[in-house]
């Protein structure tokens, strides 16, 4: 049986980002794809695991995860307001309204001169 072609085409700005992304096929790296690039791969027929990965924001994501652990986040959804108030889980609108009001009042006190 002959080979087939896998064609990957990357949008010019993926979600507003213009960073290189690593391409993996069956956990083997095939280099980076730049914004707007097209790559073709000759592959034998079969099942393949394809992953496209970018670590452009991995430091920021790790910092967010660490901060979440430090403030006690244990699940999602979890909402933090003004780094002082939080709502965990799916809650009624009234809980969000009350928490937002408390947060706003606290913010106003901190910012008054």
Number of domain modules: 2
Radius of gyration from the alpha-carbon trace, in angstroms? 22 Å
What do the pLDDT scores average to?
77
Biggest sheet character? 3 strands, antiparallel
> Terminal Cα separation, in Å?
77 Å
Detailed description of the structure:
This protein is an alpha+beta fold and 113 residues long. It folds into two domains: 4-53; 68-111, no CATH class. 28% of the residues lie in helices and 31% in strands. It has a three-stranded antiparallel β-sheet with strand order 3-2-5, with no helix packed on it. The protein has a two-stranded antiparallel sheet with strand order 1-4. A two-stranded antiparallel sheet has the order 6-7. Strand 2 and strand 3 (28-33) form a beta hairpin. The radius of gyration is 22 Å and the shape is elongated. The model has no long low-confidence stretch (mean pLDDT 77).
Helix and strand arrangement:
Layout: E1 4-9, E2 21-25, E3 28-33, E4 38-43, E5 50-53, H1 58-70, E6 78-81, E7 85-88, H2 93-111
Antiparallel strand pairs: 1-4, 2-3, 2-5, 6-7
Features:
two-stranded antiparallel ribbon, three-stranded antiparallel β-sheet, 113 residues, alpha+beta, 2 domains, 28% helix, 31% strand
Question: Brief overview, please?
Answer:
The chain has 113 residues and is an alpha+beta fold. 28% of the residues lie in helices and 31% in strands. It has two helices and seven strands.
